[in-house]
Amino acid sequence: MPEIHHLRAAGTSVVLDARGDATPVVVHWGRDLGDLTAPQLAALADAQVPAVTASSVDVPLRARLVPLPADGWSGRPGLTGWRPGGGPGDASDEARAAAHPGLRHAGTTSDGAALRTVLADDAAGLRVVVTLALGASGVLESRTAVTNTGTSSYALTSVASTLPLPARAGEILDLSGHWSGERRPQRLPVRDGVWSRETRHGRPGHDAPFATVVGTPGFGFRAGETWVVHHAWSGDSAVRVEHLPSGHTVVGAGEIWGPRDVHLAPGEAYESPRTLAAWSGDGLDGASERFHAWVRARPGRAPKPRPLTLNTWEAVYFDHDLVRLRDLADAAARVGVERFVLDDGWFRGRRDDRRGLGDWTVDAGVWPDGLHPLVDHVRGLGMDFGLWVEPEMVNADSDLARAHPDWVLRGAPGRDPVGWRHQQVLDLARPDAYAHVRDALVALLEEYPVEYLKWDQNRDVLDAASRPQVLATRRLMDELQARFPGVEIESCSSGGGRVDLDVLDRTARVWASDTNDALEREQVQRWTGLLVPPELVGTHVGDARSHTTGRTQSLGLRLVTATFGHSGIESDLTRVGEQELAAITRWAALVRGLRPLVATGRTVRADRPDESCWVHGLVAPDGSEAAFAVVSRTSTPDAVPPPARLPGLDPARTYRVERVDLAGEPVIVGDVPPPWWDERVVTLPGGLLGEVGLPLPGLAPEQAVLLRLRVVA
Length: 713
Ligand code: GLA
Description:
Blueprint: E1 4-9, E2 12-17, E3 25-31, H1 38-47, E4 79-82, H2 93-99, E5 104-110, E6 114-121, E7 126-134, E8 139-148, E9 154-159, E10 161-165, E11 171-178, E12 181-189, E13 193-199, E14 212-215, E15 226-232, E16 237-243, E17 249-255, E18 263-264, E19 269-271, E20 274-280, H3 283-296, E21 309-311, H4 313-316, H5 322-335, E22 339-342, H6 372-380, E23 384-389, E24 393-395, H7 399-403, E25 423-425, H8 431-447, E26 452-455, H9 467-483, E27 488-491, E28 509-511, H10 518-528, E29 537-542, H11 555-563, E30 566-570, H12 578-600, E31 602-605, E32 613-619, E33 625-632, E34 654-660, E35 668-669, H13 675-679, E36 681-685, H14 686-691, E37 698-699, E38 703-711
Helix pairs in contact: 5-6, 8-9, 10-11
């Protein structure tokens, strides 16, 4: 068995030095190093052994797979815990050793794509298995399993998957945000200390770091080296970048728990969620390419073609009325909608957001014949039917809460958690509560031909352990999917509060935000697209006046923005004028035509000198076609904006570029646009389009242009 392991895929190499009985070290995670011989690998591993510095441990200090103080590591440990059995005063050897573990390497095996390292501390009664798997797309999956091999209960207090980064990775980018403003990027330099992004919402939250990028300073979408890490977990997490004055930089990711949450009985094991990581030598786009390929290649999860969707929320809110909704369905079918989703407001007592959650039967007052008349109508028009649910929650004003007040998740007996949208969490870790909700959902899915569940989760899990809730929710989704394999689930959480690559194992798309303001949406989509491919991100055309920002936007901008994802409509089409309806109908046809490109295309984003105008697009895997959006966000600093460089095309082929106006001419400032603008078509080599770009007119703020490209030679 080799002692230095080399994984290679998609232009990436990972080299693990597993010589000796100390915990192994990742000595390289980055650019593909080629086919190295054993002596070359040994030379590489030797070259990575650092000097012993002054006033430090007497051995070379390494950022090991599970860094621990026992190996001289003074940064955050990769594993902490203790044996509470005998209390803090327990002076048994096992208890003392467990609080200060020192892991020894018991062997590393490889199947060529995945490494499995076994570590043990027999005195502490701990066995740790770290797996590192480099998938064909270049995404590195890391997991840590901890088994209590001791004689008493072991309380785990933290486990983090830890990866070392080179010194040149000097700049951090991650995301933050809030309701209706998810995934806002922030950048900062790597400094001594810990940059830790912690989410304690019991869901990733609107402010989730989502992707933690560390890169060579100044990295962009198309340039620079980047190391991108995502903690694939729908609960409390911490992702940190840590730099020690000794010169070590690591990135670590793990769950956050309370002190009582993860207690392992003798023989019991904990398995961490996956930490997913990708290196790119071509900026953020290169990392996105790897993540998108990983998501698209998951076994059994190839998405069906994405039906154009109409969601009723912003059209009617809680005002459910059969005649009105039938009219809306008629209007939807006329423009080419393929899936009609009935949002919140259909179930017992749900006349507003203060009551009803938990009572998952159809409200007999509003729907005397059940949902059948609407469902039949929708399906008669040739559309799928989808339904909104929020299974993890309960309103105090509900029959369920009245019958089972003890099913409300509470941190302390008798203490009601602070309300949030007037609702509480239903304790799904209780078998009775779980079975009740499951049976209610099963009854609905058996009675109605529902093809899609918009699965919402509208509050944080704040003052009780969230891990059992996360696990129960996964189980519930799994059970329903096994029973109704045709039903697609959307992960919604007051917009984009639960967007992660774990929930996407069980869901067919995410609702990235409650804002349909196109400019806000451009931002949310741009950064959600760092990890999630566009066909899995809902992108809806909202009303001209956005319900979240009050801003009024042109139909052209709204349509272009809603093209680059799983397209839909979130607007009362019965109140939209004929001209707009005609434009939406044309757009629906375009969306159908672009569907294969959206489902398979490579996401590309141009680096531009300023943020006033964004250029992004999708390029077919074989380079034969592409679609780009040019989005003018604000007025340009220069009267004549820099040309739109269209990255990612095949440089050796020639493309016909067509400007497609979805809803009238974009407003431009100035008299004479560049010649191709009025001609609407230009034919140029891909290399030139990428390097030099297309000259742009002075686009007025909040305008968007769609470009369709096809190879002609
Ligand atoms: C959340 C969702 C919205 C909508 C409402 C309904 O806020 O994000 O899309 O479904 O709930 O109450």
